[in-house]
């Protein structure tokens, strides 16, 4: 999502400030929380505009940190604390509808409406509880790629070295190479269904990437570059591009998976467990996905020199020269800096995918 840069004058109009203790709606209930970030989303390409806050729920794991609009956040005061208690009592069924005395106008319709409202709240609470109880997915990342993640974070956020676009190979090309490598390893008659599954998963990865890129995969320093790529795609799709020659044909029909490369695909794998947690996939389906994701990550680790950018070749901060396929770096949009991931340790990507440490 598009946000204003840090230090924008518009931040002074925010109702809540960073590090402020607040109450925040999550489902039907209010929870104690803390504002980690406060930003005003204004760019027209954003689906949601206005004040937004990055919230950490008190006593919850960091994986539940999230961006919320201002209407979900309340000041901590006596009135709102009472509202919090009332909502909790209603959901838990400890408090029924308002008491009705003689002459209060009780009708079958009013009783039915209250019963329907209670059922709705109970359903919402049940759905939230079911979501929280879903099994977490852990995807082991090869040690070499963990180093890439940290290098990517450091070069972009500390050294101002952006990944030049378009990349070569792109994500779409990388996944095609992976599919070909799978086919070339088979010495017996191939199972056509197995090939179909690999094709479905790689195609699904591209779709996930296109949807997630602008929302959760970018560092703040990369947003201007992303907006420029988005503008080019939109101009071509709307038929308003001013480019000449073959340049317009080069971008027509493309998506972000045809522009970005291995560095940003690796960040998607860090976010993927959190994304899958919001789907209705059963345990068997998620285990199948996990196995394929591990295979793709191992493929990327074996071919780092061909797939990843050589940051050492980028001499000027924020420059975008022609990319060189060489050993490089990639990271989840909020991966911790060096030293927080131990070699040989499986990364619980739902815990590290979103937000700074509490």
From TrEMBL:
Residues 30-89 form the Chromo domain. SMART domains: CHROMO. One of its GO terms (cellular component) is NuA4 histone acetyltransferase complex. PROSITE patterns: MRG (PS51640). The keyword Transcription applies. InterPro entries: Chromo-like_dom_sf (IPR016197), Chromo/chromo_shadow_dom (IPR000953), MRG (IPR008676), MRG_C_sf (IPR038217), MRG_dom (IPR026541), MSL3_chromo-like (IPR053820). It is found in: Nucleus. Its main location: nucleus. Residues 87-127, 318-358 are annotated as: Disordered. Keywords: Chromatin regulator, Nucleus, Transcription, Transcription regulation. It comes from the Eukaryota. Residues 110-127 have a biased composition (Basic and acidic residues). One of its GO terms (biological process) is regulation of DNA-templated transcription. Residues 318-338 have a biased composition (Low complexity). Belongs to the MRG family. This is Chromatin modification-related protein EAF3.
């Amino acid at each position: 999502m598009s946000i204003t840069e840090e230090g924008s004058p518009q931040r002074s109009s925010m109702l809540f400030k960073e590090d402020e203790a607040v109450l925040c709606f999550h489902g039907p209930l209010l929870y104690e929380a803390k504002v980690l970030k406060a930003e005003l989303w204004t760019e027209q390409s954003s689906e949601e505009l206005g004040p937004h806050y990055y919230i950490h729920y008190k006593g919850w794991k960091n994986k539940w940190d999230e961006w919320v609009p201002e209407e979900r956040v309340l000041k901590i005061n006596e009135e709102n604390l009472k509202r919090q208690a009332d909502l909790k009592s209603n959901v838990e069924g400890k408090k029924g509808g308002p008491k009705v005395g003689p002459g209060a106008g009780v009708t079958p319709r009013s009783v039915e409406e209250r019963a329907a409202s209670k059922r709705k709240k109970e359903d919402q609470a049940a759905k939230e509880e079911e979501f929280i109880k879903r099994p977490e997915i852990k995807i082991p990342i090869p040690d070499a790629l963990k180093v890439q993640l940290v290098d990517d974070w450091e070069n972009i956020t500390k050294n101002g070295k952006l990944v030049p676009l378009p990349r070569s190979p792109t994500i779409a090309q990388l996944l095609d190479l992976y599919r070909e490598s799978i086919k070339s390893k088979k010495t017996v008659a191939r199972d056509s269904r197995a090939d179909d599954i690999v094709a479905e998963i790689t195609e699904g990865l591209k779709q996930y990437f296109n949807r997630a890129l602008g929302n959760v995969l970018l560092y703040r320093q990369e947003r201007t570059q992303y907006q420029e790529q988005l503008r080019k795609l939109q101009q071509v799709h709307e038929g308003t591009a001013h480019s000449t020659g073959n340049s317009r044909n080069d971008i027509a029909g493309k998506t972000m998976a045809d522009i970005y490369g291995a560095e940003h695909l690796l960040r998607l794998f860090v976010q993927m467990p959190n994304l899958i947690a919001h789907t209705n996939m059963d345990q068997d389906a998620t285990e199948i996905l996990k196995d394929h994701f591990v295979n793709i990550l191992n493929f990327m680790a074996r071919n780092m020199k061909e797939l990843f950018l050589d940051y050492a070749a980028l001499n000027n901060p924020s420059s975008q020269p022609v990319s060189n396929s060489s050993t490089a770096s990639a990271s989840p949009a909020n991966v911790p800096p060096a030293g927080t991931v131990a070699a040989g340790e499986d990364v619980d990507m739902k815990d590290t995918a979103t937000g700074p440490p509490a």
